[in-house]
Write a structure and sequence with these properties.
Blueprint lengths: L7 H18 L1 H21 L10 H31 L2 H6 L5 H31 L8 H23 L6 H18 L11 H7 L3 H13 L15 H22 L6
Helix pairs in contact: 1-5, 2-3, 2-5, 3-5, 3-6, 3-7, 3-9, 6-9, 6-10, 9-10
GO molecular function: ABC-type transporter activity
Main location: membrane
Keywords: Antibiotic resistance, Cell membrane, Membrane, Transmembrane, Transmembrane helix, Transport
Amino acid sequence: MTTALPSLGRVSRTRAGVELKEFFRQRESVVFTLLFPVILLLGLGAVLDYDLGSGVDFPQYFMAGVIAAGIVGASLQNMAIHIAGERSDGTLKALAGSPMPKTAYFVGKVVQVVAVTAATIAILLLVGVLVFGIDLPSGTDWLTFAWVTVLGAAACTLLGIAVSSLARNARSASATITPIALVLEFISGVFMPFDQVPGWLQDVAAVFPVKWLAQGLRSVFLPDSLAASEPAGSWELGTVAVVLSVWCVAGLFLCAATFRWQDR
């Protein structure tokens, strides 16, 4: 008599629980992913104190950027490093050879990204309000905040799964992936006003999802008068939605083409 295998939903829930437990048991990952954006906000927010126009100080401006950095850290960076480690130590090979549906593995990773992203954003908003008196979004800006975050996190997660194959092993994963994430953040106006980024680097940044994620978040935390500082002179929320959606679709193809269940 054969025993029926559990449903995909049940296996996915179990795998999601495993992913969350593994993440929160690794102190280095928790500190870097959750607290590093907070340290950035506290450090740069305290040091860089200047008016950006329309009565906006740097902490208010930087809130969008540091949330974008938190999303990139929880999705692209954390995802790529962890998958590279699991590929290197044989975990992926073992899972691929088990009865577990491969889809459940990716569902677990997505749930982990969602949980860590939500926790990161909640902590940043709390610190921003209590320490710097950040003005929170209001009205429909919360809806914009939600869809920009979801699309941006999805695009960066898929990109992270794809670039995980660039790391040859677990030891080189952080050294390979972290510079990619930092470069994308710097050229996307995460750590500085985007209009201060050289024009040719703005063009390069426009190819990747991080720039559009940061721009969409700026539209939520900044007054419309500062939209004139953007390359197109507006927030381009329609373009933000299109580019991030295209990256979600392109990311799926990249993952299918590059993902490997075992090391080279």
